[in-house]
Amino acid sequence: MEWVNAIVQGILLGGLYALFAAGLSLMFGIMRFVNLAHGDFIVAAAFGTLLFVDATGVNPLWALLPIVPIMMVAGYVGQRLVLNRLSGKDILPSILVTFGLSIILQNLMLEQFSADSQRVSAGTLDTSAISLGAGLTVGTVPFLLFVSAIVVIAVLNWIFAKTAIGRQLRATSDDPETVGLMGLDKRHLFGIAMALASAVVAVAGVLLAIKTNFDPAAGPIRLLFAFEAVIIGGLGSLWGTLLGGVILGVAQGLGAQIDPGMQILAGHIVFLVILVLRPQGLFPKKRGS
Amino acid sequence: MSIQNWARFGLLILVVAILVSGPYWASRGTMRLLIEVFYFLALAQLWNLLAGYSGLISVGQQAFVGLGGYAMFSLAMFAGVPILFALPLAGVLTALIAWPTAFVAFRLSGPYFAIGTWVIAEVYRLVFAQIPALGGGSGISLPAGLVKAMASGRSARESLTYWIALAIMLVVVLGIWILMRSRVGLSLSALRDNEEAAVSVGVRTRSLKFVIYIATAGMTGLIGALIFVQKLRITPEAAFSVTDWSVLVIFIVVIGGIGTLEGPILGCILFFVLREYLADLGAWYMIILGTISVVIMLVEPRGLWGLILRWRNITLFPATRRI
Amino acid sequence: MTHLLEARSLDAFYGDFQALFDVDFHLDQGESAALIGANGAGKTTFLKVLTGLLPVPGQALSLEGVDLSNLGTHQIAALGISMSPEGRRLFPSLSVRENLQIGASVKRSGPWTLDRVQELFPILAEKAGTPSTLLSGGQQQMVAIGRALMANPKLLLLDEVSLGLAPVIVRDIYETLPRIREQGTSVILVEQDIGQAVAVSDRLYCLQEGRISLEGKSSELGRDAISAAYFGRAKEAS
Hints:
The structure holds three protein chains of three kinds.
Chain A: H1 2-31, H2 38-56, H3 64-81, H4 92-113, E1 129-131, E2 137-139, H5 140-162, H6 164-174, H7 176-181, H8 186-211, H9 219-233, H10 238-258, H11 263-277
Antiparallel strand pairs in A: 1-2
Helix pairs in contact in A: 1-5, 1-8, 1-9, 1-10, 2-4, 2-8, 2-9, 3-8, 5-6, 5-8, 6-8, 9-10, 9-11, 10-11
Chain B: H1 3-20, H2 22-25, H3 28-53, H4 62-78, H5 83-105, H6 110-128, E1 140-141, H7 144-148, H8 154-181, H9 183-193, H10 195-200, H11 205-231, E2 233-234, H12 236-239, H13 242-256, H14 262-278, H15 283-299, H16 303-311
Antiparallel strand pairs in B: 1-2
Helix pairs in contact in B: 3-8, 3-11, 3-13, 3-14, 4-5, 4-6, 4-11, 5-11, 8-9, 8-11, 13-14, 13-16, 14-16
Chain C: E1 5-14, E2 17-27, E3 32-36, H1 43-51, E4 60-63, E5 66-67, H2 73-79, E6 81-84, H3 96-103, H4 114-120, H5 122-126, H6 137-149, E7 155-159, H7 167-174, H8 177-182, E8 186-190, H9 194-200, E9 203-208, E10 211-217, H10 223-231
Parallel strand pairs in C: 3-8, 3-9, 6-7, 7-8
Antiparallel strand pairs in C: 1-2, 1-4, 4-5, 9-10
């Protein structure tokens, strides 16, 4: 039963990892851009939640209301002002700039908040539980996380499939040059893509704040988890990323069962094995040529 | 040789002579500082070889620093190898472990390669934290007896360590210089500029990248071995620290100038000067370093040396490449 | 008189490499002009200049008197130039219908709607939901042209429509050209197939190593003159 429980917890944790990964996947899919500060932005959103809750005293889920729009605007502006200058053949500047940003962000948060580990309480949600039948109960928060991941991914997929802007973003990921011929400004579209990714990062950050302890240095490991979920799941498919997150979560859960110190290592090892045996990931999306 | 070449050669000889005679004029504190300068410069040049010349951007070199350190401690403590022999042997062992590591890492490319190398370093850190014989998460210390066996008398040991560090630094810098002037260097430049085109003209890019990666790993391991001999104690946190062995090294290269031999030298000097004055600022020190790096990449990707080149076209080490 | 499109003494560079030398070109409202020349002569380069894909800052290039030389691609598209690019360059992640829809992003009003384009090329209605790159070459070419039409352009550029297609398919596609021109659209077509180029155009330009080597009314230019201009041989005394 313990093992079943570990697996279920792992699946739910996978939802959080999928949220971490979705933003990364989006940025890479549309702009071929990897933000090494990705994890740190998630942690920044978590600290934002902390500030919000300290100031207003309401349930942290309300933090989504200010934080998501703020990060979307910041993402759009950041992309147009700074990151658009980095797009081009050479990946070196974008890797190094975002790497520098990561360090700056971590240390700014350290200055502001100290190195203490934080967590935000969601009130009664923290300890309440939901019964899934067959004698299985799960915490409300982990369950909420998993459902959120599904909702976010479903919404993203709907945007891409059914809306004009989604169509334009898909076209941009195919061929940014030809997109210009359609009368669309790719600098603006990149900004929109970053705004969308930032929205997902914001949601991930708020939920992180509720789910687990975090501190200013917690960003990089989240980047690694996001990256592992994307690679395991395969590039190009958000549902694949969800499954990647779930596999990572389950691997970690099983690892923790063997030995608490093995939790993260187990995830890394599963990732490396999949990377070696099936580098394209488990569910890569094939593109038409 | 032209006047320029004579001047360059003379300058080099002068600098080397001053450095070699270090133990005779430098205080203990200065020697320790210089040792640090030497190994950071060596690490910076090696990272620059990977990222600036070969297009392999690694955020995981700390894996090899740590492996070298642990290999060194294991050889000295469990295999009874005298430290002086354990050092180069640790480098060789690191290179051997780098071989399968490269095989895994090269499944990825570009920014995903960068993150992948980081994951691999984390794996090594977590694995070593699980090995009881090596002290697990708390690490182990080098027994005093082994250290004393290096040379008789503390100042002799310190001079020895100093010369070893200097030798490593010179081998790395001059080695990379010679490499970049050779055919291999030309192939690397081609690889860095446009891998597809390089392949189409017959550059064996895959084997080239492999060899460079493994050789760099070995040298990095050697440096790691030296670093931890000097520290006398190794823990997984310190051995595989991304901040110490990647972040600072990357900042040094980026600020000084990526893709040139002079850049890391300039960056290293600047780094130590900044550290002298800013280290008290704690987190702000890192924020400042980070900001300078970001601004440099946005404004003059060739770094401070690139700015100098704009003003005056000097070359200390001919065979530099332009970004 | 103001031409619809005018380029005067146009030079174009890829970095240090000069691809176009002193090109004079004009097109009037409702006209169609063919641009022919050997591979590498600069035909596609010229179209890239017109669409803003290759910037020519400060040079004499205008559409209805509006200076194009400092505008970005998306701005030029908004002014009314649209292109079916060389190699079609459809969006693989989009279906046929979606490729057509995205062509209308520029939101210009005019006769071309999804229905009208599908009337022109019925196969596109049939295959509306299919991923665009799963179609045959000829069908993909129709999508590319349809996509360009959806922008209701004043000036339609057709780059190498015949590339890789069987002659019978090329003929079918060009047979739709009169219906396109009926709506008032002016056309510049780049063509390898000289016969086709002469047949469907009012005027003809020939590029040879980046320079205009011949210009004239398609009906009046003889085969010899065209060959000479194409290959750069001096005109033979007859």
